[in-house]
Amino acid sequence: MTAQANTRNAIPTVKLLIGGELVESTTREWRDVVNPATQEVLARVPFATVEEMNAAVASAKEAFKTWRKTPIGTRARIFLKYQQLIRENMKELAAILTAEQGKTLADAEGDVFRGLEVVEHAAGIGNLQLGELANNVAGGVDTYTLLQPLGVCAGITPFNFPAMIPLWMFPMAIATGNTFVLKPSEQDPMVTMRLAELALEAGIPAGVLNVVHGGAEAVNLICDHPDIKAVSFVGSTRVGTHVYNRASQAGKRVQCMMGAKNHAIILPDANKEQTLNNLAGAAFGAAGQRCMALSVAILVGEAQSWLPELAEKARSLKVNAGVEPGTDVGPLVSCSAFERVSGLIERGVGEGAELVLDGRNPEVPGYAKGNFVGPTIFSGVTPEMTIYKEEIFGPVLCVMAADSLDEAIELINANPNGNGTAIFTRSGAAARHFQEEIDVGQVGINVPIPVPVPMFSFTGSRGSKLGDLGPYGKQVVQFYTQTKTVTERWFDENEVGGPVNTTINLK
């Protein structure tokens, strides 16, 4: 976990970003950034000192004094430049991401691209940060609103989308006039740092964006620091609940996107081939390491006979390092993640689920040390089983059976999480009934991972989310701004003897 700062000098170190400068940390606590396919140490990331983290916040606080007054068009043009730089460096960003996180190069490009869409959205801030006006609400009185930035905001991001999720956060916060302190995952911070470098190149001024690294101490400092006004978090339910409670008690605005158990209902009238392809991609893509992964499939009625074909589809997926051509499923991010997923598969067998497809110990030539688990399918899963109750965060699909659509809906609504869900059907009536009755924040109809585009907002619900407002879209503009309502009245200067209607002799 830790190493002295003066050892293994040949291994590069990840820098901090404070006040517009890449800074070498003076900490004595470091963590290795490891390629999950090979166990090669790629870099060493510092756990920033309290003094360094406080310096980052102080830099952001100072920069806010001028950044908040920067014209909205100037801010927008910086993000127009930033999206151009991300596009030009897409291959490099994807390669860094794959090396440190493990997902395939195609998935890595998708990770960057989905973040890029939010950067493009931020470039349209002039159309998003608009107030309202009511003219003449009383005699000569107008009322209007201003959406003003909060100050220093902070983001805490997870390992599974080290490009997309930071780009969900700091572009919209900065575009709306705030400054930002970002704490990326210590497991894969390198692509996040490259994105920060490109942000500086795009013209974000010194101190407006700062990056620190660390673990629980860094999280708690962000929650407690009196100069941080808002905190955005994506990660586990355990940590997210801690962040929400601690930061909100400190008087901050908080949004936490947390754990999930996403279900899909498959009706027998669905397009079989399209549905099976969608299930395989959504369950096993990114090695199942995404909060919107499809981890439970409920086969309704005659669709239960599709299980062998689903297993065959999953069996055909190629497990390999993310850099290898044709790879469908890369390694898990760490040895501890590998042990956890493997242990949960073992527990599923022990609790009586039928292991239809066992993805443990796949042969991956040339990568004997990789954290690989192949596509795994359980059937006969019940709500009491650990593999159903816990978010596995690996390429494991739980298959359940239902006799009717309403029975399947009841099963989903009984689950405490509400991130995403989907239905596969040709019936418009069934789809409409599903979308009305399901108690989940994001719904897909013949779409397995219903993450909305940035014009909308990410709207997970129930146990998957704490806080009223989601990341990106219209909701995040509200999150990162304070609404100030102004009621004004101007008197006719002629009534008070003023010069409005007075003839002025200019000679």
UniProtKB/TrEMBL annotation:
CDD domains recorded: ALDH_F6_MMSDH
PROSITE patterns membership: ALDEHYDE_DEHYDR_CYS
GO molecular function: methylmalonate-semialdehyde dehydrogenase (acylating, NAD) activity
A family per Pfam: Aldedh
Residues of the Aldehyde dehydrogenase domain: 24-486
Enzyme class: oxidoreductase
EC number: 1.2.1.27
Superkingdom assignment: Bacteria
UniProt-listed InterPro entries: Ald_DH/histidinol_DH, Ald_DH_C, Ald_DH_CS_CYS, Ald_DH_N, Aldehyde_DH_dom, MeMal-semiAld_DH
A Gene Ontology BP annotation from the UniProt entry: thymine catabolic process
Keywords: NAD, Oxidoreductase
Stored PANTHER family: MALONATE-SEMIALDEHYDE DEHYDROGENASE, METHYLMALONATE-SEMIALDEHYDE DEHYDROGENASE [ACYLATING], MITOCHONDRIAL
Family under the similarity heading: Belongs to the aldehyde dehydrogenase family.
Matching NCBIfam families: MMSDH
Name assigned to this protein: methylmalonate-semialdehyde dehydrogenase (CoA acylating)
